[in-house]
Specification:
Layout (H helix, E strand, L loop, with lengths): L1 H35 L10 E5 L3 E4 L6 H9 L6 E3 H13 L3 E7 L3 E4 L1 H16 L4 E5 L4 H7 L4 E4 L18 H6 L3 E7 L16 H26 L5 H7 L1 H7 L4 H7 L5 E2 L2 H12 L10 E3 H7 L12 E8 L1 E3 L7 E3 H12 L4 E10 L4 H16 L4 E10 L1 H6 L4 E4 L4 E3 L3 E7 L1 H7 L24 H26 L3 H4 L7 E3 H6 L5 E2 L2 H11 L8 E4 L13 H6 L3 H4 L23 E5 L1
Parallel strand pairs: 1-4, 1-10, 2-3, 2-5, 4-6, 6-7, 7-9, 11-14, 11-21, 12-13, 14-15, 15-16, 15-17, 16-20
Antiparallel strand pairs: 8-18, 17-19, 18-22
C-alpha cells in the first residue's frame, strides 16, 4: 500500500512539474515576443495601395480558413482572392488621405467569372473617380486581366508579354459512340428543351437546339465584354473582334513582337520590365522605407492596418448579408457547397435578430438538388411573414436551382454578365447490363416483388414503370418550378414557359424578359435595401456565414473550432483552389450522378 501511495505521489509531482514548466516557458515566450514585436506598421502619407489579386477571384473561398492558413504557414501561394476583400480595400483607400494612388498588379491573377470582373471593375472605377490615379502592370494579359486593366489610367506590359483574347466558348466531350461501344446505357429524364447538361450522353456532337441555346448567352457575354473594354480603352468598334479572330495572322505579318502588337492595337500603353516600372513609380511617389522600391502598402497589410471608422459602432438596425456560393445540396454540404441544412440554420439566426431590417443574399450557384433548393426557399418564405424585405444579388451564376431560390426574393438584381434562368429539371443515371453481357459474359437475373424492385441497379435495364416514375417526377418538379416563379414574379405560366425550357440568359437578357428586376452590383443593392428599409446613409451590414455550421468532410465541429482558435490569429489568411475557367464552361462541372431531380 505504501508503494502505491509513493508512486501516486511521484505521478502527481511529475504533472505539477510539467505544468509549472509549461507556464514558465509560456511566460518566457510572451516576454520575448513583447520585446521584439514592434506592432503593426502604420500606413504612411503618400503611399500607393498595391492591389495584387492572386489566383482566382471568387465570391467565397472554396476551402475553410484552417486549410488556407496552413497553406500560408507552409509558404504555399494562395489560389483564391475574395472579391469583397479587394472591394473593401479599394473603398477605404478611396477615402483615405494617406493613399496617393493605386497599383493593380496582375502578375499572379488567373481568372474570374464575368460578373465578378464587372463588380471589381466597378470598384476600380469608383476609386479613380475619387481623383486618385490607378496604374496596372502585368507580364501578360488574358481576357479577364485586360477587362480589369482597361479601367486604369495606364497599362504597362512586360516586353516579353502579350495580350491574348480567346472570347467565350463551351466545348464538351460527347460520349454516345463510346457509351454504345462499351455497352453503357444512359437513362435520361428531363423537362425543358434547352436543359442541355445531359446532352453529351445522348449524341456525338452538339445539336442545333443546343448550339442556338449556347450562342444566345455566349454572344451576349462577348458583346458586353467587348463593349466595356472598347469604351474604356477608347478603341474603334470592331478592333477587339478582329484582334482575336486574326491574332495569328497579325503576329506572323506585322514584324512586331506580341507585346509591341498589343501596344500598336491600343491594348497597352507602354512596355517595361518590372525594374524599369519600379523606377518610374519611384520618380512619381518616392522610395519606400527599404530604399529599394516605391512607397507602397500591400492591400492585405492595408486591411490589417486600417479599420473603417463606422464598423461596429453604429447603433440601431442593420442589413443582414448572406453569401451563398457553390452547388446546392439537400442536407449537410461541404465547405464549397450550399448545404440546405446549414443555410436553414443560418436563416433562423437572421430571423431571430430583431435588429435586422432587411436580408440581402449574394448568390453564386449553377444549381443542384431540387429538394435542397426548395428547403431553402421555404425558409425564405418566413421573411415575408415577419415583414423583413428580402433581396438577391446574383454573382457569376444564379441559374437553375439558384434561380429557384432567388425567385422568392422581393427583388432580384444581377450583373449584365450574370448567367441566370435555366428553368428546367433533369435526372439521369447509367446502367451497364450490355457491357456485362457482351464484354464480360455476365448475365444478371433474379426475382423481385414489384416492378421497381430492381430500379437503380447498374447491372439491370430500367423497366417501363421505372421510366414512367422518373419522368413523372421530373415533370412534376418542373411544374412546381414554373408555379413558384410565376407566383413570385407575377408572370403567367403560359408566358413564362418560353422563357424557361432550361434556357440560359445573361443578366441583361433576363432583365428584358422580367426574370430580374435591376442591373447592379452587391454594394448598390445593399444601399438600396437600406434605403427601402428606412435606414440612413450610415447603415451597417452584418455578414452571416453558413459555413460556420459545416461539419467539413466528416470532421464534425473541429473545423469551426480551429477557425476561431489562436491559429487564425497567428497565421495570415491565404487561399487555394482552381475552379473551372469561366471562358471554358460558365457553369463548371458538378459531376453529379444520382437519381434525384437536379436543377
Amino acid at each position: 500500500m505504501g508503494k502505491f501511495i509513493k508512486g501516486l505521489f511521484r505521478f502527481f509531482s511529475l504533472i505539477r512539474k510539467f505544468i509549472t514548466g509549461l507556464l514558465f516557458w509560456g511566460i518566457a515566450a510572451l516576454i520575448v515576443f513583447s520585446i521584439f514585436y514592434k506592432g503593426t506598421p502604420k500606413v504612411r502619407e503618400g503611399e500607393v495601395l498595391v492591389l495584387a489579386p492572386t489566383g482566382y477571384i471568387v465570391e467565397e473561398f472554396s476551402r475553410p480558413s484552417f486549410e488556407r492558413e496552413l497553406d500560408a504557414y507552409l509558404g504555399r501561394p494562395p489560389g483564391e482572392t475574395r472579391l469583397s476583400d479587394l472591394q473593401l480595400a479599394l473603398g477605404m483607400a478611396s477615402r483615405d488621405g494617406r493613399i496617393l494612388s493605386a497599383f493593380l498588379d496582375l502578375s499572379g491573377f488567373v481568372s474570374a467569372g464575368p460578373e465578378v470582373l464587372e463588380e471589381l471593375a466597378r470598384s476600380l472605377s469608383l476609386f479613380r473617380q475619387s481623383g486618385k490615379p490607378l496604374y496596372a502592370y502585368a507580364p501578360f494579359l488574358e481576357q479577364g486581366g485586360l477587362y480589369l486593366a482597361s479601367v486604369a489610367d495606364e497599362i504597362v506590359l512586360d516586353p516579353m508579354g502579350e495580350v491574348f483574347l480567346r472570347g467565350y466558348g463551351t466545348y464538351r466531350s460527347y460520349m454516345k459512340e463510346g457509351l454504345d461501344k462499351w455497352g453503357i446505357n444512359p437513362h435520361i429524364y428531363r423537362a425543358g428543351e434547352h436543359k442541355d447538361y445531359v446532352a453529351p450522353y445522348l449524341a456525338d456532337s452538339m445539336n442545333r437546339t443546343e448550339r442556338e441555346s449556347s450562342a444566345l448567352y455566349l454572344d451576349d457575354l462577348w458583346d458586353s465584354w467587348k463593349g466595356t473594354v472598347t469604351e474604356n480603352l477608347g478603341l474603334e468598334r470592331g478592333v477587339l473582334q478582329k484582334y482575336s479572330d486574326t491574332y495569328g495572322t497579325i503576329l506572323a505579318g506585322n514584324g512586331l513582337t506580341a507585346a509591341e502588337t498589343a501596344v500598336h492595337y491600343g491594348l497597352a500603353d507602354s512596355l517595361m520590365t518590372w525594374d524599369d516600372f519600379n523606377q518610374v513609380m519611384i520618380s512619381r511617389v518616392g522610395l519606400d522605407e527599404s530604399g529599394s522600391g516605391f512607397s507602397q502598402t500591400y492591400w492585405t497589410d492595408y486591411l490589417d492596418r486600417t479599420t473603417p471608422s463606422d464598423v461596429s459602432v453604429i447603433p440601431g438596425r442593420k442589413v443582414a448579408l448572406l453569401v451563398l456560393s457553390g452547388e446546392i445540396i439537400w442536407g449537410e454540404g461541404s465547405y464549397d457547397q450550399i448545404g440546405s441544412y446549414q443555410v436553414e440554420q443560418t436563416l433562423d439566426m437572421i430571423l431571430s435578430d430583431p435588429s435586422n431590417a432587411a436580408l440581402v443574399i449574394r448568390l453564386d450557384s449553377p444549381g443542384g438538388s431540387a429538394m435542397g433548393a426548395e428547403a431553402i426557399r421555404r425558409k425564405l418564405e418566413k421573411f415575408h411573414n415577419y415583414g423583413i424585405p428580402l433581396y438577391v444579388s446574383m454573382g457569376n451564376t444564379g441559374a437553375s436551382g439558384g434561380y429557384w431560390i432567388a425567385s422568392e426574393a422581393d427583388e432580384i438584381w444581377a450583373g449584365e454578365s450574370t448567367l441566370t434562368g435555366s428553368i428546367g429539371v433533369f435526372s439521369y443515371f447509367f446502367t451497364m447490363e450490355d457491357f456485362l453481357k457482351e464484354k464480360a459474359g455476365v448475365n444478371v437475373d433474379g426475382y423481385g416483388t414489384t416492378a421497381l424492385s430492381d430500379v437503380y441497379r447498374l447491372d439491370r435495364n430500367t423497366s417501363k414503370e421505372a421510366d414512367r416514375m422518373m419522368q413523372a417526377g421530373v415533370d412534376q418538379t418542373y411544374r412546381q418550378f414554373l408555379d413558384i416563379v410565376s407566383r413570385r414574379r407575377g408572370i403567367p405560366v403560359e408566358r413564362l414557359k418560353p422563357l424557361a425550357e432550361g434556357q440560359v440568359w445573361t443578366g441583361r437578357q433576363a432583365l428584358e424578359r422580367g426574370l430580374v428586376d435591376n442591373i447592379g452590383g452587391l454594394d448598390e443593392l445593399l444601399a438600396y435595401a437600406a434605403g427601402q428599409s428606412g435606414l440612413d446613409g450610415d447603415f451597417r451590414v452584418t455578414d452571416y456565414d453558413d459555413n460556420s455550421l459545416t461539419g467539413y468532410r466528416g470532421m464534425g465541429g473541429l473545423i469551426p473550432l480551429l477557425n476561431s482558435s489562436l491559429i487564425s490569429r497567428l497565421f495570415p489568411a491565404a487561399g487555394a483552389g482552381a475552379p473551372t475557367l469561366p471562358e471554358d464552361n460558365p457553369f463548371g462541372d458538378p459531376r453529379r450522378i444520382n437519381a434525384w431531380s437536379d436543377l
